[in-house]
Each structure stands twice: as structure tokens, then as C-alpha cells.
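Moderator note: this is an archived Q&A kept for reference. The question asked for a predicted structure of one protein chain; the sequence and the answer are reproduced below.
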Amino acid sequence: MKDVNVLITGAGAPGAPGIIKSLRLVKERKIKIIGLDADKNSVGFSMVDKHYLIPPAQDKNFIKEVLKIAKKEKVKIIIPLVTKELIKFARNDVLFKKNNIKVSISNEKVLRIINNKYFLMDYCRQNNIPTPCFYLVKNYKDFETAVFNLGYPKNIVCFKPPVSNGLRGFRILNEKVNRLDLLMNYKPDNVFSSLKEIKPVLKNARSFPKLIVMEYLPGEEYSVDVLANEGIPIIVIPRLREKLKMGISFAGKTVYDKKIIDYSKKIVTLLKLNGNIGLQFKRDQEGVPKIIESNPRVQGTIVLCTAAGANLVYLAVKLALGEKITKPKIKWGIKMIRYWEEIYYDKRRYPFTL
């Protein structure tokens, strides 16, 4: 089997080490990994074969620089890890194909739906896939109306921007939370607040941000890793998110849940998704799993699937190359605990570990 050069963006992303590790574990061929990032201190630079500093996705030269590096390094497959890059890659997919480079990604039209939490939930609601009750609001009056329509303060309510990641802009409104307990026993990165505390921030904002106000789901949360081929779901693996920090899974396990798998397959089929896709579900108070958002790219904790016998990162590479994929036997109940590890740099900026 021919060796292949693979380029990943966002080499400094929290999940990048596990994604790189997944590619390193491949035995059937040699994979040269090229890592790109906009941060010169990217941790992933110490783990790849070659690395390059690039401008951020919003820079007008982003695609030009990535293409130049990909051609120089004879890259065959690009796997984007950064959400903000996805639309740009999709928009320039033909350009990369002309240079015999395939980007593992869905098309631009689909990305604009699935990368927007409101569009995704609205689409799922129309297609009988369970969602929380939600409203899209564009001013403070509508925000307050939506909050009370959802039963606040008797009911807990949450809100978030339609487009964001890493819990940015997400808050849970709960009038019953013990504020002293939050102050003394929680780190200041908690997401709990109240309407009284949020009101002056939103009401006095120069430009009110679009927000989704939605039913709070108190049950277990799941990330689902899917490998799809132009709308055909090939492998679907739900992961229970047992411990979260800054929106990142620090403990979890693979679980077989037929409902979540079936809902995930339906979303993939309806939207004709492609490559590595992440979907997120949370259970309501009755235990019903409801879709809350998606990551239309490789998810940071996909390495847990690798440990469970399904190297979805490498299988996406094979899919992009047009190679036959043999479905792996998935080990359900594999548990993961994530921990911190350090990377060091010498005076020449050469990375090393202890």
C-alpha cells in the first residue's frame, strides 16, 4: 500500500495530539504528517513530521498559504481541525482537487446548516428528530419573553449563540443556584447565572447578539463520532461525556445506544454529510436524547474511538483516497481519562518532552 502525506490544520488544538497519535498507530502504510497552526507555540508541532506557521482562517491569504504548503509537501489529504476554516476549505474544494489534493469535508451548503446550532436544530425539528424547545432571539425583549415562555424561574433555562465553540457565550439561568456555593466551591469558569445578573449585560449591549434560548436538558451528554461517505453513514460511535472542562471531554466511554445511533444516521443521510462528523446529544428529564449541536469535522476526543478499535481518522483518509473500508469491530464500554502533559522549547525553538 502506497505511503501518503496528510496535512492537518489546528495542530495546537486540544484534541490534536490524539488525532496525530491515531495516524501514528497505522501499520499498513507510512503516513507523513504535516501540521499547520497560526500559533508558533502549537503543541502539535512537536508531534508531526514537519510544521508550518500559517495565517488564521479569516486572513485573505489563508487558502493560498495552505495550498502552497500542501503542494510543496506533496500532500494528498487535508484534515481540518478548526471550525472557522471549514467554509473556506469547502468554498475552495475545486481548487484543491485541481492539484490532486482532497479535503475531508462536507460541501459548503451543508456546512452552513450544520455549523449553525439554530439551523441544525430547526432542520432536525422539521424532520422529526428530537430537539429541546428553543427560540432564536435578536433583541432583549424577545430574549426575556423566550426565557419566561420556557418557564423561568421555576424551570432552568439556557442560552448560547448560534455559532460558537468551546462554551463561548453559553450560560445556564438558574434562580435556585446557591451563589455562595458557586463562589466558594467552584472555579470561576462555571456557566451558571441568573436573569438578574445577565439583564444589564444584554440590555445595555450596543449590538444585541443573536441567541438561542432553549430548554435546559439535565441528563447525560453524548458526543457521536461518525464516518460518512456523501450521506451514507459507515460507522457511528456514541461517547458518554462523563467529565467536561472548558467544553472538552476529560473522561468518557464508548456506549452503544440504538436511538442515538439511529438519529445520527438519519441526520447524516438527510444532510448528505461527508468525512468525519461530530454530533452532540443530551437527555431531557424523561431520558430522551435530543440533538443540541454538531462539529462538522474531526472531534478532539475521536482518539477514544481509536482505543475502541475504530481509527476513524485514518479511515477518513482511506475514504478520501477511494480505498475500500472494512468495518472494524467496536469495543463498547472503553473508558478514557485525559490528563495534562507538557511540551518544552529550547532557545532555538526546538520542541522536546521529558
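Archived answer notes: The chain has three domains: 4-104, 111-119+218-337, 133-215.
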